[in-house]
Design goal:
By secondary structure, this protein is of the alpha/beta class. It has 7 helices and 11 strands. The strands form 3 sheets. Strands 4, 5, 6, 7, 8 and 11 form a 6-stranded mixed sheet that branches. A 3-stranded parallel sheet has the order 1-2-3.
């Protein structure tokens, strides 16, 4: 697990992975009590390390694990009992698969978000340690390279990703800054097109075509802030280019 200021989530996050033989958390110098709470757990190895980007942090934490299979989880994610049983079954059964993707159910202020662009979300979470490495130049929405077959698990993970609109806005800005840096390193520049049409396209796609309006006012908030994140990304890219 990678953490920064997750004091409201950390107890539930540790509880949801208590079936693991080893729990490692790399904390980016939290200042809200997360680190102190983590240190109180006897079964958790906590390392404080400066955050550079998500890929750098994930590749580092992979090297710390001593068992064959590694499960990544964010502090705001939970593993229901059915998914836990499925994970344990695959880890303990001989097969050729080296990585598993999880589907996630999203929650905003404890309300289940069924649309708004999240309905098809899947993410890699379970790997054979020696068969995976994260792509180094993809520093946000990080992507692993797998040396072997992968599969999507049947049961779903819960993702309590947004406590409030302000929390989501903060996340969007953080991701946007990292994405802008990634684009800048590739020589990309921001133009008027990016500021006007990219955010509008993002909103229309998620709110209308991906049915965000069916999620009510929460759907409107999410789709608006997702579009804002795109605008903020190019704003940051323009700053870097200047």
């Amino acid at each position: 697990m990678i953490t920064f200021n997750e004091v409201n989530h950390i107890d539930a996050a540790i509880e949801t992975i208590n079936f693991a033989d080893e729990i490692i958390v790399v904390d980016s110098f939290s200042n809200d009590g997360t680190y102190e709470k983590l240190k109180s757990y006897k079964n958790v190895k906590t390392i404080q390390r400066k955050f550079v980007n998500f890929t750098d942090q994930r590749n580092y934490i992979l090297k710390q694990a001593k068992y064959e299979w590694v499960l990544f989880i964010d502090a705001d994610e939970r593993i229901p009992e059915a998914l836990k049983k499925e994970i344990i079954e695959y880890v303990n059964t001989p097969h050729e698969i080296v990585g598993f993707m999880f589907r996630r159910l999203f929650y905003f202020k404890q309300k289940r978000i069924r649309f708004s662009g999240f309905q098809s979300d899947t993410t890699y979470r379970l790997f054979k340690k020696d068969c995976v490495k994260y792509i180094e130049d993809k520093i946000v929405h990080e992507m692993p390279i797998l040396n072997g077959e992968s599969k999507v698990l049947k049961n779903k993970m819960l993702h309590y990703c947004f406590d409030s609109a302000l929390h989501y806005k903060s996340k969007m800005e953080h991701y946007a800054k990292l994405k802008a840096l990634e684009l800048h390193k590739k020589g990309k520049k921001a133009y008027t097109f990016h500021f006007l049409f990219r955010p509008l396209y993002k909103f229309i796609m998620n709110y209308f075509f991906r049915l965000g309006f069916l999620d009510g006012k929460e759907g409107l908030t999410i789709c608006y802030l997702s579009a804002y994140g795109v605008y903020f990304r190019y704003q940051e890219l323009k700053k870097l280019s200047n």
